[in-house]
Design goal:
Order of helices and strands: HEEHHH
Helix content: 40-55%
Mean pLDDT: 89
Shape: globular
Low-confidence stretches: none
Structural class: mainly alpha
Distance between the termini: 38 Å
Radius of gyration: 14 Å
Number of strands: 2
Number of helices: 4
Strand content: under 5%
Strand order of the largest sheet: 1-2
Length: 84
């Protein structure tokens, strides 16, 4: 297990899903903060400090967990389209 895997595995425990919270989207610690919202704030240029100031119930490790989750998703070997 590499160093990233060791450090990210604990962070990923902060990512939760529940059908009654944000329609089952991955969220931070069961709160109504979807991972994609945190990633959008970061990609818009907000700093960790700005996000934490605006959302007082978030912690620094929550932001790191969102990033670790995104890394795991980007490491997927293949994405297959689902047809409805």
């Amino acid at each position: 297990m590499d160093q990233f895997s060791k450090s990210s595995s604990g962070l990923l425990e902060r990512i939760t899903t529940h059908p009654d919270i944000c329609h089952g989207k991955p969220c931070i610690r069961g709160l109504r903060y979807p991972v994609d919202m945190i990633l959008e704030l970061l990609s818009a240029g907000m700093s960790n400090e700005e996000i934490l100031a605006d959302y007082s119930d978030l912690e620094r490790d929550d932001i790191l967990a969102a990033l670790a989750f995104a890394v795991r998703l980007s490491q997927m070997k293949r994405v297959q389209a689902v047809r409805g």
